[in-house]
Write a structure and sequence with these properties.
Length: about 850
């Protein structure tokens, strides 16, 4: 049995299974999706079926030995809907057809046309049916009891085209009803159809009355025509569906914008000549030429030239990245000043951008656990509503009400009780959140991951590459007999440039940044695991660990306390000496990232315990823990042991998130309730993770948790509204409040209320598009960025502090704070009003208390101070 369009493989009990994605047509509410799921799950061999109402898609996992895609499609068809297997070839054809087309917005445009025609016909219909109540004039051939049939028949003729234009409600509604899976359209079709049939019955009854001269019959039915209700129900529902489709179209705008980034044409070099070809014709191995200002069409490796490339559209990083020969570039990024050529390595659906889009689309196709409640209710809701409508109508008839009153009650119950809002409560919020996440560089691979993350009790962080930069750099320089820092760096650079040790590379990078002129060393010798030695200007120099230097006859007792401090801080000291004299010490460490401490603090503020899990020794790990304020550290953990540690935390009843970046983190990422791969990580880590952070910034993990919490909060609001609406609407429509308060809804008002309910749910979910991290979050992040930029630009060596200030509201506030701070000796302050930060440069030591006091005397409050020396 051949299945080419496989979405993925997995095994259950050693048997191979496959997962396929289908496009489902004809669904309009949660009852539809529930009916499709029930029907597909009945197919032997189907492991699971998950339908997404918003994207009209379905993912089915099944045993190919027992089931086939044809059987699955037949099951969907038997339920009263249509299904089409999505293939990679189909996706490529859709790519060629045009990425900017949005089917949801196209659907909205089609509805708009139907709506315009319907409204144009409804205006005269409403005039005819309601005009006489407002004493508006009617044509003579339609006025008076003698023209009652003409009056009714004119309304029938105006209502008929409205019903025909919106006949989809009837065709889908009755088809699913007869299939035994009634849905929202079934409620609308029964309600509108009942009103229409009653109006036709009224025409016949009035004809009888006129013929028999029974004017009481004519008068009775003359005021009980329901043609306008029959048509207006459809119009109101179409209005709601139109607004809903427009809103749903906007939920996928983030993905749409990403897709639109890909240029349509590419300049390739073939047979020594440059030619422009459609981007879909570029193949792996093609040489692509890029000019200044152009977008890259595919992924590849630079083979000639260099430039700065703006990757902000993919990573969110605003600063262009320098790219040289041998470095990787991605599709949809923008070349800046230079020109270069690169060899295509990934094209079409294999590019980084395409994979990002696929991840988000797959997340939209999944279903959050919280949605299962709505699905279960929706599955029985429609039959229940039909039953309530019949009981309500029968009850009023039994109570002595007229047939028209009872019919009106039954129709209103049917049209007000649509489970649309229930079905949209979760998927709209999930789609908006995953799209927003993609914009922020957070790729959420499933709706379940988004939901589970908000309930996490403990965040476990890998150290190297996650909390720290992942590469050593110079942190301290201590002079011994060397005359200056430059002299020591000159010697260190000469000795280390022939070494292959990672610490040597860090020293060379630091020396290069200080513009140290390189010198040649002679008779270089490296002693494995100990150090290096060589002659410089005829003098023998040594560099290495303490033991190596002691073996060369150089005493280090004078700096023992310093060595102990470095070790306690997790730093590695390298000693430099010559002829019995210690020249100095250069300490190196894998430094924490600029935002790591802030991220840890934010997690703790949100009530999440932070644990560091690392393979490093206890002393180094403890130094990092103290420096970053981490709650607990688990050190000397091998890759298999990391997974065991995660499991142990889960066995204590904790929901655990694991954040890592390497292959060694993959088992732990897979074991955690939520696995997060940071900085794009390795392919293995990304595969094992539930959430992927494109940028190498731990604050994005905090942002992801805030987004998760905001999303679940929105879903709960939507579900509450949907339940509240139906809990209030059904009794009101059934006329329970009519005897005591005289409250009764008409079918038209019921249809309008139902449409408004669905629109409210979608509009509420769309608020997530404006999601932003908390103000506190942004201000602190900004402060850390300022300090990082200062350090990178050579600001190290003079004291700099960033004060976060509460109470500043306007430019006068800014002036007061600047005046207060600049009035202190040795202080130069610049205030950023938008971020509520003051950047303070100190030419001499000034205590935090003095700074706080100066701000306080100006009438404001310092909430925190970040410092860098």
């Amino acid at each position: 049995m051949a299945h080419t369009p496989r979405r993925g493989w997995w095994e259950v009990d050693g048997l191979p299974k496959i997962a396929e994605k289908y496009e489902v047509t004809g669904m309009t509410c949660a009852a539809c999706s529930a009916a499709v799921e029930r029907s597909v799950k009945k197919v032997p061999g189907v492991e699971s079926a998950k339908v997404n109402l918003l994207t009209n898609s379905m993912i089915v996992k099944y045993d190919e030995k027992q089931a086939s895609s044809a059987e699955i499609i037949k099951a969907v068809t038997d339920a009263g809907y249509g299904a089409l297997l999505k293939t990679e070839q189909g996706a490529k054809q859709a790519l060629k057809a045009g990425l900017s087309e949005n089917p949801m917005l196209q659907e909205a445009e089609e509805m708009k046309l139907r709506l315009i025609i319907s409204v144009l016909l409804m205006v005269p219909l409403m005039y005819l049916s309601m005009g006489h109540m407002l004493n508006l004039p009617l044509p003579s051939f339609l006025s008076g009891m003698k023209n009652a049939v003409s009056f009714a028949f004119a309304q029938f003729l105006l209502a008929l085209p409205v019903i025909f234009i919106n006949r989809k409600f009837y065709t889908v509604g009755f088809r699913t009803l007869f299939k035994g899976h009634p849905n929202m359209d079934s409620l609308i079709a029964i309600g509108s159809g009942a009103a229409l049939l009653y109006g036709i019955l009224a025409i016949f009854r009035m004809s009888y009355g006129l013929g028999a001269g029974d004017w009481s019959v004519v008068q009775k039915y003359y005021h009980d025509l329901y043609f306008e209700s029959s048509a207006m129900i459809l119009v109101f529902i179409t209005v709601g569906k139109f607004l809903e489709a427009r809103s749903k179209g906007k939920t996928s705008e983030a993905i749409r914008r990403l897709m639109d980034l890909v240029p349509k044409m590419a300049r390739v070099v073939r047979n020594g000549q440059e030619e422009m070809i459609p981007v879909e014709l570029v193949v792996v191995g093609d040489i692509v030429s890029i000019k200044p200002g152009e977008k890259l069409p595919v992924d590849g490796i630079i083979i000639e030239g260099q430039s700065f490339v703006d990757e902000s559209l993919l990573t969110g990083e605003s600063i262009p990245v320098e790219k040289q020969a041998g470095e990787h570039v991605s599709a949809a990024t923008v070349n800046q000043a230079g020109a270069f050529k690169f060899r295509a390595t990934h094209v079409g659906a294999d590019t980084t951008l395409a994979k990002i889009i696929a991840l988000v689309e797959d997340a939209n196709a999944t279903k959050a656990p919280i949605a299962s409640l709505a699905d279960k209710i929706s599955g029985i809701f429609v039959p229940l509503v039909i039953g309530i409508a019949l009981l309500a109508a029968a009850g009023w008839l039994f109570a002595g009400a007229g047939f028209e009153f009872a019919l009106s009650v039954g129709i209103t119950v049917l049209v007000i009780s649509c489970p649309c809002a229930l079905g949209l409560a979760t998927p709209v919020a999930i789609m908006v959140a995953t799209g927003k996440g993609a914009e922020e560089g957070i790729l959420i691979k499933s709706a379940e991951a988004l939901e589970v993350f908000h309930r996490v009790h403990t965040v476990v962080l890998d150290k190297t590459g996650t909390l720290t930069e992942g590469k050593p750099r110079v942190t301290d320089i201590v002079l011994g007999s060397a005359g200056s820092e430059d002299e020591l760096l000159e010697i260190a650079q000469a000795l280390e440039k022939n070494s292959e040790h990672p610490l040597a590379a860090a020293i060379l990078a630091y020396a290069k940044g200080k513009s140290i002129v390189p010198k040649e060393v002679r008779k270089f010798n490296a002693v494995a695991g100990r150090g290096v030695e060589g002659y410089l200007d005829g003098v023998l120099y040594f560099a290495g660990n303490e033991r190596f230097i002691n073996e060369k006859g150089v005493a280090t007792e004078a700096v023992a306390a310093l060595s102990h401090r470095f070790s306690k801080e997790g730093k590695t000291p390298l000693y430099f000496a010559r002829e019995g004299s210690l020249l100095g010490i250069i300490a190196l460490a894998d430094e924490p990232k600029a935002t790591s401490r802030q991220a840890v603090e934010r997690f703790k503020e949100m009530g999440v315990k932070v644990v560091m899990l690392t393979g490093d020794n206890q002393k180094t790990a403890e130094a990092v823990r103290l420096r970053l304020g981490i709650d607990e550290v688990i050190s000397e953990a091998l890759p298999p042991e990391k997974e065991h540690k995660i499991r142990a935390l889960q066995q204590q009843g904790q929901k655990v998130a694991m954040i890592g970046d390497g292959i060694n983190d993959a088992p732990a990422l897979a074991r955690a309730d939520t696995g997060i791969a940071i900085g794009a990580g390795t392919d293995v880590a990304i595969e094992a993770a539930d959430i992927v952070l494109i940028k190498n910034d731990l604050m994005d993990a905090v942002k992801a948790m805030e987004l998760s919490r905001a999303t679940i909060r929105t879903i709960k609001q939507n579900l509450f509204w949907a339940f509240f609406y139906n809990s209030l609407g059904i009794p009101l429509a059934a006329g329970l409040f009519y005897p005591a308060f005289g409250l009764k809804l008409t079918p038209m008002i019921g249809a309008a209320a139902m449409s408004l309910s669905s629109f409210f749910v979608v509009a509420n979910a769309l608020r997530l598009r404006k999601f932003k991290p908390s103000k506190e979050f942004k201000a602190e992040h900004k402060a850390h960025q300022i300090l990082k930029e200062s350090e990178e630009s050579g600001g190290k060596g003079k004291m700099e502090k960033v004060l976060k200030i509460k109470g500043m509201m306007c430019n006068n506030c800014k002036m007061h704070v600047e005046k207060a701070l600049n009035g202190l000796e040795g202080v130069n302050a610049q205030v950023n009003l938008e971020d509520h930060l003051a950047r303070v440069f100190l030419s001499k030591a000034v205590s935090d208390e003095k700074l706080k006091q100066a701000v306080q005397e100006a009438g404001y409050e310092v909430t925190s101070i970040l410092e860098q020396a």
